[in-house]
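User: Is it possible to get a 3D structure for a protein together with its bound compound? The compound here is iron/sulfur cluster. I've pasted both below.
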Amino acid sequence: MSDATNGAESGAGGAGPLLEVRDLVKHFPIRKGVFHRTVGQVQAVDGVSFTLNRKETLGLVGESGCGKTTVGRTLLRLIEPTSGQVTFDGHDLVGMSRAELRPLRRRMQIIFQDPYGSLNPRMTVGAIVGEGPLIHEMGSREERRERVEYLLERVGLDPVHQINRYPHEFSGGQRQRIGIARALSVNPDFIVCDEAVSALDVSIQAQIINLLIELQDEFDLSYLFIAHDLAVVEHISDRVAVMYLGKIVEEAPARELYHNPRHPYTRALLSAVPEPDPTRKKERILLTGDVPTPINPPSGCRFHTRCPQRMPVCSGEFPGRYDIGPGHHSHCYLEDPAHAAEEPAAS
Ligand code: SF4
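Assistant: Yes, that's possible. Here is the predicted structure of the complex:
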């Protein structure tokens, strides 16, 4: 075993953040012709940095195609990053070989969006939830069976009557509970919840989010909670990062982001969140135009083609990081006193 994997199988009890991501880049080559010549790059993730503390939830939010799912999968090395650094509990994941990565895989799990497509239809629920412990040679056969039964019960299923059933016999919400039990089966420290509730009805969404919060407490979990809807992440997240076209444009503690959004894109997303109090009116900020293609993203601030407050400076360089308060930063020239008084650019 190399130095890199020493202690990799043990739980996350160390000091410092559980996960540190620095300048993560993932570009997918576009190939054409019989010789598969590279003719361009999809710049799915372009310089993303954040940290995730132990037993914390970071919400990662943005419109479809902004790169958030690619971030989640690249962290787990389900997709190889183009460049950047990912450190999990002190281990440099990007520099590891597949063999070195293996003991860490158990500690990093994913819950997928599609509870219909992510479960093997030919396996019983018991076999699905028990597969991970079997692969990682955890416990005896009897212990694994007990673990599966406990987890099924814990996620709200009936182990006695449902353990031998197949995924098609369950509703969408129940299938997502099976996906959660499967992720928990190997005793992970970190779970990527990739649009884990997006395909569910609103009432079921709330139940699954509450379940994830309870399980976080019980199993000492850290979550990267990926969603396209700010309303969904509000309840579960300690901090929220907002992504647009491959870059994080604002990050803040959840409460601060919802009460003091600074980036115009965050404000537009928040304006679309329904107001629970019908007596309070909220002005909807309608963004014009489509999200530009990540093959050829706009220069400067990538949001400048749709931003209602864009200024001449915005199309030059990507704005640097402006610190607003504890844990709150934004990448927007409006935070720079030198530019904040500028006239908006003509449309
Ligand atoms: Fe809008 Fe300019 Fe800020 Fe980008 S940098 S969000 S274009 S004001």
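The two ends are 59 Å apart (CA to CA). The CA atoms of residues 292 and 298 lie 7 Å apart.
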